[in-house]
Design brief:
The C terminus is likely disordered. The termini are far apart. The chain has one domain. Strands 2, 3, 4, 5, 6, 7, 8, 9, 10, 14 and 15 form an eleven-stranded antiparallel sheet that branches. A two-stranded antiparallel sheet has the order 1-13. The chain has a two-stranded antiparallel sheet with strand order 11-12. The longest helix has 11 residues. It has about 240 residues and is an alpha+beta fold. It is built from five helices and 15 strands.
Length: about 240
Amino acid sequence: MNDETQLKEAVDYVEDEAFTFEGYQVVRGEFFSHVFEPSFTFNNYKVQINTACIKRLPDFDYVQILVNPDTKKLAVRPCQEDERDSFRWCSATAKRTPKQITCRMFFAKVISLMNWNSNYRYKLLGKLIKSGDELLFVFDLNSAEIYQRAIKDDGKVKTSRTATFPEEWKNQFGLPVEEHKSNIQVNTFNGYAVFGLQEESKKSSKQPEQSEPVQVEQEETYEQFSLAGTTNSGY
């Protein structure tokens, strides 16, 4: 008895050789609940990589952020503490919780690149992929969930709990099957710029911050230190 016969006996199915994926769209993951999926958030001049990412790479406490301005993709690459432009993405505790990282220059550059509203919150869903012998998370900046903010009558800022999506998604469920297969693929680091973040000094963290929405939560903050515009040199 061959494998195909065994499968047919185990699972009741109908053979349909006429079926094709032509015309089908893969429904976007953003349309479903994704609490346990890797995500990257831009909010209030800060970025945060969620717990799902940290749990999938338990052996790494430091990462680099890479951006490809041409394809509008962002990658989070695990690395060692002593590597250039590395920063800690989680707390230094046994539980390893996510950090919110202050990065005004990087935040402003991404906002400008994507023509986003700096007062909104943007959330990206990503996937853990393998490129050569390296693991990294890849996020598509073009597919951000948008959480708008509005000022209420009492002057307080309210953030929407319901995400909005790019206008071009309105009349589609997702990408065609063939396009979907090749959408998030990284075979090389060429074209990616590495952004370095360094812990901000106590002095700078105490300075008053202007022109940004109210931030309620307390967090450990990091400040952007350098921008490396090189592509794959020494990495």
